[in-house]
Give the backbone structure.
Amino acid sequence: MARSTGKTLNSVQDDAAQGFIFVPLGGTGEIGMNFNLYGCDGAWMAVDCGIGFAGPDMPETEILLPDPAFIVAQRDALLGIVVTHVHEDHIGGIARLWPQLRCPVYATPFAAAVIRRKLNEAGLTREVKLNIISSGGAFVLGPFQLRYLAMTHSTPESQALAITTRYGTVLHTGDWKFDPSPIVGGVSDEAGLKALGDAGVLAIVSDSTNATVEGHSGSELDVKKSLEGLIMDLPGRVAVTCFASNVARVAAVIEAGVTAGRHIALIGRSLGNYIAAAQESGYLTDAPDFIPEKAIGSIPDDNLLLLVTGSQGEPRAALARIAADTHPHAVLGEGDTVIFSSRVIPGNERSIATVRDGLAKRGVNVITDDDEFTHVSGHPARDELRKLYRLVRPRYVIPTHGTWRHLSTHAALAEEEGIATVLVENGDVLQFGPGSPAIVDTVPTGRLAVDGERIVPLKGGIMANRRRMLFNGAVIGSFALDGAGKLCGMPKVSAPGLLDDEDSRLRHEVESEFRDMLGKLHAEFRKNEADYITAAKAGLRKIIGRHFGKRPLVEVHAIQI
């Protein structure tokens, strides 16, 4: 399980030109932001392009993206993005990063329907070549012979990807599980996996999310039955929250609601988008007509089921607004129930607890998977990983999709089964061939932050200043100068987060000290406006430091009169 060092080549471009390599830029060593590169004979291919969610330790932003700079520098050789399934941590970055990547996208019909909606929102529909590949279909991208293999997951048409080159075959699993009774879609293609193994597989690059969990992940059918029993017996309004992209769970909740005789309302725009895409692709076609949000109040409480987004405590999602009593239509209170049909993604514990606490304060009964059987994972537990190994019989296992704890535990399991492993993390260059798989190089990696309509470096000046403002505040000093550079009147100081309207005495002290400091600046500063502004900022920063013990972001504005 030790990391292989191998031979370091002069450049990663040479690695790709002379062999078959794997370079994860996101999702390996972390949860989310899955973005994987495969290079062969000078050509490149990306598998998935997802987003991640910033936790409470990054209050300056909400959505994260993997930094594609390495592949953008050679995007002429990028043949396409191949999508394994529609979860946001695998497709959420496509529309946002495509203007930098500018390559075709390959996806199954359902994934294409979801991606098309995202591209339309971004105004990219006409620019992106979106190629639809049937579930289990085969296609070729340059030196890569590709075949989808259907896998069960919590959303339809999840695919593993068999990647065959002249150096051998690698199976990139995507997200998967073995479920004999999926609610939506078919079972995993075990016959196809065995046939692939019979032909010979060099390595599996596999989901490690549940590598620490012994046994089996469980069946969606069992969750559906449990939800039906729960909802049938509950009084008042019932709300169920899960991921909008978990179409299997959405289907189970809808069926449970119908069985309980409840009308169903969708709360959250993403739910409507995913259900529309699913129906366009032939799924959920027997779903009932949904109650519009504005009509919720016309349905008796005991006959109403709300399907709500926001299971991870996202502050802008529908459930957080319901918990804060700020949603314009959906209201929950004493005697109502919210069922969390989801797991807690690491890093979201605090935000989820805040939402649950808000619901409890309103008298809402909160049910989680700690209380009742409301959730099964869409990822393989250890028995399923063992089964995959025995079907495919790879020479190597490359754990991905998880934190380092997940990856190392997965590697230990594979080695217990007699399979060699190589542990990689984002930025490692793993050469599959020629020769034995080994890490031969590294590339720069990083994270980008989605800031409204733009994308900025997470560690760049904008986000650094945002974080500084969050913890230390911001101060703006304004003053007027005459033609000779002499101060006119009293400067004004605005300090959001430090001074409020009731601090008139303290504000006057700060402004008076700022005036005195400006008046004492050396005459030489007055000859150069830039030098004057720099000296004024430094002086105001010292004044604020003395009064508040803080180092806020400081700006000054000089007005010439």
Q: What stands out?
A: DSSP finds 16 helices and 29 strands in the chain. The longest helix spans residues 529-548. The chain has a mean pLDDT of 90. The CA atoms of residues 447 and 459 lie 8 Å apart.
